[in-house]
Design goal:
Layout: H1 12-35, H2 42-61, H3 65-83, H4 90-121, H5 126-134, H6 141-155, H7 164-167, H8 173-182, H9 187-194, H10 196-200, H11 203-224, H12 230-250, H13 254-281, H14 299-313, H15 319-334, H16 336-361, H17 369-373, H18 380-395, H19 410-415, H20 434-456, H21 469-475, H22 480-526, H23 534-557
Helix pairs in contact: 1-2, 1-8, 1-13, 1-18, 2-3, 3-4, 4-6, 6-9, 6-11, 8-13, 11-12, 11-16, 12-13, 12-15, 12-16, 13-14, 13-15, 13-18, 14-16, 14-18, 15-16, 16-20
Length: about 550
């Protein structure tokens, strides 16, 4: 009796997601045509890239959780294929497997959530499930919401399933941009917004979502402070920004979180593609300590990267200011402690982004002579997407410009039909209030400090051997990967070795092989009877006849 339709649903939310995925995705495709032009796997790369976009489109257009899950698993597969695309290095294959396995952990929770939906409602189609919830049906809504959020924790890289995302930098830079900006990591945010009816009926789960987001935002921002790989800095920045989106969801600020998904797609795609342009010019060098002084050689990359840095730092009137500060404004009214800690995370974001920008583009060139001789601006196919994304990073805030600066909050009204009642109501924020001035201070003061330290004083991040104390703990990512390795990987490897050495070798193989050895040794002895001696054969035949006759006579007599 179970019917699961493979149907599509186009509404206000899916339309906005389609525009983000296809809009930013198109720019990344154009950029990739030049970035990957000399790669031997050019055709395969674009096949994977388009498959990635296809599954993301299926994810956002599905009319139910099962269709969403098909796309959900599809983007997981494509991330594996693209992160490990350059599979000649074992480390790249390790990064791809890590992403795949950590997502499978989260997806198990998601799958259990879908099973529970079928158990409760007999369907997993959005319209039927949400209507049933609004009618007061369903008894395990909190458990279902929690299981679905476990899936979001994996896909959108939240604690504890976040460590795969920084390692995903092993793939080509356009892949990093696509994963971090337009696809995969936004899937968890989309799912929670789509299932807002379910999550609103589970306030304790929403509370959990908000605090997980806060912890992830702070952890990602802290680790980003001292990273020296230009892509790793941006990766931990994504982890942190996703935390802000989940904080907004925890405060039921669905529009603000989706607004930040959109603006983040603009400036994070810009920053990753800008980093790719730098890496392209620096002959695949990614360590910012070996860069410097690129401003004059890469003018378009320099200007666009600067605009992206200003946007993500939350400096007005750029897009990031309006979206991030809208989340902060909701947090101010939701939980003052969460808001204060979020301000700290915002300050760290401003510092590490201006740090990476200044160390990369200003000061003296610290690379090799070979790199200096080959420095050049990227071709038009790479710089044109940078320019378009830079413009969107500057003006993108107008789509949901708040009422207190004369905006019409278009996005809030557009998404209103699929969001809870009252969620589109505008917040009253006064220019002289703490909730307005504190985020501005968190954006400007760390930026000025970074400019002073790395620009005016021309400080350069220390070499790995010179890093010590608390800075080394942060630089080594709080040893979270090592802890996971000790707690989970090593025990599994130990059990694998135990089962191989004892169970497999001593029990299973011994039983199977001993049977084979017995048959083989028996046949070796029996084949000796086949001597080829005719006299021996006649003797054996007579002896056998005698035995048969004796046995027959015995049966007759007795």
């Amino acid at each position: 009796e179970l019917s699961i339709p493979l149907a599509l649903q186009i509404d206000q939310l899916s339309i906005m997601m389609l525009l983000i995925i296809t809009g930013v995705g198109t720019l990344i495709h154009l950029y990739s045509s030049a970035y990957m032009s000399h790669d031997a796997g050019f055709g395969k790369f674009f096949a994977f890239l388009n498959l990635f976009v296809f599954f993301m489109l299926l994810l956002v257009m599905g009319s139910g959780f099962v269709t969403l899950f098909i796309g959900w698993e599809g983007v997981g597969l494509c991330s594996y294929l693209l992160i490990g695309f350059w599979n000649k290095k074992n480390s790249y294959g390790d990064a791809a497997r890590k992403a795949f396995i950590m997502n499978r952990i989260g997806d198990l929770g998601f799958l259990i959530g879908i099973f529970l939906l079928f158990q409760e409602f007999g369907t997993a189609t959005y319209q039927e499930v949400f209507e049933a919830i609004k009618a007061g049906n369903g008894s395990n809504l909190g458990l279902i919401a929690f299981c679905l959020f476990i899936g979001a924790m994996g896909k959108s890289a939240q604690i504890p399933l976040f460590t795969w995302l920084p390692d995903a930098m092993a793939g080509p830079t356009p892949v990093s941009a696509l994963i971090h900006a337009a696809t995969m990591v936004t899937a968890g945010i989309y799912m929670v917004i789509r299932a807002n009816v379910l999550f609103e009926m589970s306030p304790e789960v929403l509370h959990f979502v908000g605090w997980i987001g806060l912890a992830t935002a702070l952890l990602g921002a802290a680790i980003g402070l001292f990273q020296n790989d230009i892509k790793k800095v941006l990766a931990y920045s994504t982890v942190s920004q996703l935390g802000y989106m989940f904080m907004g969801l925890g405060a039921s600020a669905y529009t603000a979180s989706f607004f930040h998904v959109m603006t983040h797609a603009f400036f994070k795609a810009l920053l990753f593609l800008g980093a790719g342009s730098v890496i392209h010019a620096m002959s695949d060098e990614q360590d910012i300590r070996k860069m410097g002084g690129l401003k004059s050689q890469l003018p378009i990359t320099y200007i666009t990267f600067l605009l992206g840095t200003i946007a993500i730092a939350g400096i007005p009137p750029f897009a990031g200011f309006f979206s991030k500060d809208e989340i902060l404004a909701h947090l101010y009214h939701h939980d003052i402690v969460m808001w204060a800690l979020a301000i700290v995370g915002s300050a760290m974001t401003s510092f590490y982004m201006f740090r990476v920008f200044i160390v990369t583009f200003h000061g003296d060139f610290r690379g090799t002579q070979h790199q200096a001789d080959h420095l050049h601006e990227s071709p038009i196919a790479m710089t044109l997407p940078l320019i378009v994304l830079a413009v969107l990073s500057v003006i993108g805030g107008i789509i949901n410009l708040p009422a207190f600066v004369g905006g019409n909050e278009f996005l809030a009204h557009w998404l209103n039909p699929i969001l809870p009642d009252g969620s589109h109501e505008a917040l009253e924020v006064h220019f002289a209030s703490l909730e307005f001035l504190a985020p501005l201070a968190a954006a400007f003061i760390p930026a000025i400090f970074a400019i002073q330290l790395y620009g005016s004083k021309k400080a350069v991040p220390a070499a790995d051997a010179e890093i010590s104390g608390i800075q080394k703990i942060i630089y080594d990512k709080f040893y979270i990967d090592e802890a996971y390795n000790f707690l989970f990987v090593k025990p599994v490897q130990f059990l694998s070795q135990f089962f191989y050495s004892f169970i497999d070798f001593l029990i299973i193989d011994l039983l199977v092989e001993s049977t084979g050895k017995f048959v083989k040794s028996s046949s070796n002895e029996l084949r000796k009877l086949q001597s080829g001696n005719i006299g021996f054969y006649i003797f054996m035949m007579v002896a056998a006849i005698a035995i048969i006759l004796a046995w027959t006579l015995k049966s007759w007599i007795f």
